[in-house]
Amino acid sequence: MKNKVILAYSGGLDTSVLIKWLQENHDVDVITFTMELGQQIDLKQVAEKAHSLSVKNHYSVDGTEEFVLKHVFPAIKANALYEGKYPMATALGRPLIAKKLVEIAQKENAIAVVHGCTGKGNDQVRFDVTVKALAPDLKVMAPVREWGMSRKEEIKYAKEKGISIPHLSDPYSIDQNLWGRSIECGHLENADQEPLEEIYELTISPEDAPDKSEYVTIKFEAGCPVALNGKEMKPVALIEKLNEIAGKHGVGRVDHIEDRLVGIKSREIYESPAAEVLMEAHKDLEKMVLTRHELEFKKLIDEKWTQLVYTGLWIDPLREALEAFIDKTQERVCGEVKMKLYKGRCWAVARSSPMSLYNKNLATYEVETDFNQAYAEGFIELWGLPTKVANILKEKVKKEKQC
Ligand code: ARG
Questions:
Q1: Which of 67, 150, 151, 337 is 20 to 30 A away from residue 19, measured at CA?
Q2: 175 CA distance to ligand 1 centroid (A)?
């Protein structure tokens, strides 16, 4: 009997070549695994392709709901935007795929888990760390890191082995799930050039978006979205619907220079329509219900959570500890936010909450309120005291030096 390995299989060129390469170079039985995370792949078609390449067994799993509940919702609660821009669709998906790979590997008594990541990106780190942490005895193989085949050579190899090649002319590397779409390679590597319109799939260009704005109202409970435009919706359906609405207005495009964990700066393009609307709305609501002190401190915790997840440490106990703090704050993040979508932008225009700390009676500039303006003078005196003392001294020292 041959040893078995489990391969994370997308049906694309790299991982299809990997099947044959493993069979030939390592004399192993290859078991493939494909996961639906809301990217709407044809699981049946991918399974057929795997079988046509003589895999020993193939697994398909729909993890979309688990992805949303356990990975995306915590990201919303943590306002997770890496370097202020990237909603982390790919980064959030990888640890879930890795966890399922381990489960199948253990069930099948496999000796190794295999993925198709290169040695230049973050994804390899996310897979390797998660697998090693969950199953220290399992080997992780990443042949693309070593085999040194160019894309041309891979295509040649695929042709020789009778592997059908998807989108031969497609020069891009794309990863997609319900939370967004990451697009790399091809002309996008020229950071000084605007991307061609052809790369976008989930968003229309802002120029072609409707001339009329549209509103969406999002209801949150404990920091998570539960209803859209007054209609309660299941998490997956809500995000699907919002992707559609916001994408139609060109909302959710990101084009930025990103610092990868491995030290490389890369030009990254993302489309995450629902993510942009939900995170903006969530941040807006937090400002209404959390105290100034909570908001200030939570920013640090959010930043740490985001870094941990981006850098492949999903499995570190620190994440759960940070989430314990975040979840405590989210108990009061309930209410509704009305968002306006218009030509590539979205912003909050109204919000309300049973937990609101906004008190119109205090805030109004009308004279008759509970806020005693006479207190302001004494408060300002003490608030400015350290600054005043320091400056008096500074002036004194300056004068003494002149003498
Ligand atoms: N830079 C992003 C990240 O590290 C996106 C990676 C996208 N992966 C891909 N195969 N295109 O999360």
A1: 67
A2: 7
- Rounded distance between C-alpha atoms, residue 74 and residue 223, angstroms: 9
Q: Whose CA is nearest to atom 4 of ligand 1?
A: 122
90 lines ligand 1 (CB under 6 A): yes
The helix/strand/coil state of 266 is strand
Q: Do 8 and 111 belong to one domain?
A: yes
**DSSP single-letter state for residue 182:** E
From the number of C-beta atoms within 10 Å of its C-beta (0-12, 13-18, 19+), residue 375 rates as exposed
Q: Give yes or no: residues 250 and 387 share one domain.
A: no
The band of 365, judged by pLDDT with boundaries at 50, 70 and 90, is: confident
Whole-model pTM: value is: 0.96
Identify whether the C-beta of residue 71 lies closer than 8 Å to the C-beta of residue 6.
Answer: no
Instruction: Using most ligand atoms within 8 A of CB, pick from 123, 181, 261 the residue to mutate for ligand 1.
Output: 123
Do both 245 and 373 map to the same domain? Answer: no
Provide the number of structural domains found in the chain: 3
Q: Is ligand 1 within 6 A of the CB of residue 229?
A: no
Confidence of residue 369 (pLDDT cuts 50, 70, 90): confident
Ligand 1 pocket test: which of 172, 179, 182 has the largest number of ligand atoms within 8 Å of its C-beta? Answer: 182
Q: What CATH number has the domain bearing residue 371? A: 1.20.5
- Averaged pLDDT for residues 106-124: 97
